Amino acid sequence: ARVLETAEGRTLDLTLPDGLPAPAGFYEVWLIDSAVEGMVSLGPARADGTYAVPSDLDVAAFPIVDVSVEPSDGVPTHSGVSVLRGTLS
Predict the structure, then answer these.
(1) CB of 78 within 8 A of CB of 33?
(2) Strands 26-32 and 50-52, sheet pairing
(3) Could you say which of 25, 27, 53, 80 would form a disulfide bridge with 10 (CB–CB 3.0 to 4.6 Å)?
(4) Distant-in-sequence, close-in-space partners of 71: CB < 8 Å, separation ≥ 6
(5) 8 A C-beta contact, residue 57 and residue 31
(6) Distance CA 14, CA 33 (A)
């Protein structure tokens, strides 16, 4: 995963590995702070792997990239079930 500066703003470029099992619900992409207390959803996983990063977000303060399994229940918070997690460099 990496953050790119584009003419339209910042984006997270994330390639999910092949072979992830189909989730019961959907995969969601998050940026998380170093203390693992603050989280920002970048939305459901996308085939193109490109996610808009909010312009007011300090990416240095949210260096953890997380992919979670989210149930289709309308609850906007992290389910607590992460399938991938890493840090931006």
Answers:
(1) no
(2) unpaired
(3) 53
(4) 24, 25, 79
(5) yes
(6) 18
pLDDT in tens, 22-70: 999 999 999 999 999 999 999 999 999 999 999 999 999 999 999 999 9
Query: Does the predicted model carry a pTM greater than 0.90?
Result: yes
Rounded distance between C-alpha atoms, residue 14 and residue 24, angstroms: 21
57/83 Cα distance (integer angstroms): 24
Interval 68-80 mean pLDDT: 94
Q: Which residues, other chains included, contact 3 with Cβ-Cβ below 8 Å and sequence gap of 6+?
A: 10, 11, 12, 13, 53, 59, 88
CA distance 57 to 55: 6
Q: Which of 21, 23, 1, 19 lies closest to 11, judged by CA?
A: 1
The predicted structure's pLDDT at residue 50: 95
Please report the pLDDT score of residue 89 as a whole number. 77
